[in-house]
Design brief:
Layout lengths: L1 E13 L2 E7 L1 H6 L5 E4 L11 E9 L7 E7 L3 H7 L6 E8 L11 E7 L3 H13 L3 E8 L8 H7 L2 E6 L6 E2 L2 H12 L3 E5 L2 H14 L3 E4 L15 E5 L6 E5 L6 E2 L6 H5 L13 H4 L5
Parallel strand pairs: 7-8, 7-11, 8-9, 9-10, 11-12
Antiparallel strand pairs: 1-2, 1-6, 2-5, 3-4, 3-6, 4-5, 12-15, 13-14
Helix pairs in contact: 5-6
């Protein structure tokens, strides 16, 4: 983890999303897909905490070497302030933070599933998987065509690129859950990676568990501190030996988790007060990715 006073190299828009590229060589060199950066806010009561953003891209070579890019949609005072940042201004950047996605050693067919701005880190992952000789297929979902993130880039990175929108304005009408069963069959996916809101992640986890397909997910959660101090982002995760569970922090032990080990009922708030037990079929997939 490094802290940098990073110059803004580029600030632009993609549909409803804002993208900022900063010069931060020490952070970019260490960054891996699934990790995030913490961005300092201006002093004042409206900005008590820093803001955390998944890394969309980290360039280590070429003309953009030493830079990293993060993406966000404008929905509060922090992101509204960031949307007004201009080229050559400076940001207080800490990173890379959190755990990254694991790359499969023997499995080769990788299906990446994402919704909305959560697609941003998946493109970084697709680049790294392709560099390791893996097959990459993608499903990207969104509310409307304006919420589909960089569709041309997605097509470039994947052998099969499926777009689904809630209103049918781009690609097929529906959700990523509608497209997932067919894509699992047609691509022969051996590993699933996902980034999306909680209900979607849970449904993907259950689908993969039923088919005994290993999967990893990147959790989207509130991370006020981003360093594990406040425990606001705690998630109930079954221990590797199956004996009970621990409350792990999405910002420190995550944001990447094996979804087969998450106690979804307890996390989402639907569980009774009794002690939780591992989900059926848990032992079949618990050995990867950990």
């Amino acid at each position: 983890m490094k802290r940098a006073r990073a110059e803004v190299l580029n600030a632009r828009r993609f549909g409803v999303y804002h993208s900022i590229t900063v010069v931060a060589p020490e952070v970019a060199q260490r960054a891996r897909p699934g990790q995030f950066v913490s961005i300092g806010m201006p002093q004042g009561r409206s900005f008590i905490f820093r803001r955390q953003f998944s890394i969309h891209e980290a360039s280590r070579r070429g003309g953009w070497a030493g830079t990293l890019e993060f993406v966000f949609d404008r929905h509060g005072p922090g992101t509204s302030w960031l949307a007004g940042v201009r080229v050559h201004e400076f940001l207080d950047v800490i990173g890379p933070l959190g755990t990254a996605f694991a790359y499969p050693a023997k499995l080769n067919a990788c299906l990446l599933v994402s919704e909305g701005h959560a697609s941003a880190p998946m493109y970084f992952l697709a680049q790294e998987l392709r560099a390791r000789g893996k097959r990459v297929d993608m499903i990207v979902g969104a509310e409307t065509h304006e919420h589909v993130f960089k569709p041309i880039e997605g097509k470039r990175l994947s052998q099969t690129f499926s777009i689904v929108t809630a209103d049918g304005s781009l690609g097929e009408r529906g959700s990523v859950l509608d497209a997932l069963p067919g894509m699992l069959e047609t691509t022969g996916a051996e590993v699933v990676y996902a980034a999306a809101p909680r209900p979607t992640l849970r449904a993907i986890a259950e689908m993969c568990l039923e088919r005994e397909i290993p999967s990893q997910i990147a959790i989207e959660d509130e991370m006020p501190c981003g360093t594990g101090l406040c425990y606001t982002c705690a998630i109930p995760v079954i221990r590797k030996d199956g004996g009970g569970y621990d409350n792990l922090r999405a910002c420190a032990e995550g944001p990447v988790f094996n979804p087969a080990r998450i106690l979804w009922d307890r996390w989402i708030g639907d569980a009774p007060g009794s002690a939780p037990t591992p989900p059926e079929g848990y032992a079949k997939v618990r050995t990867w990715p950990g």
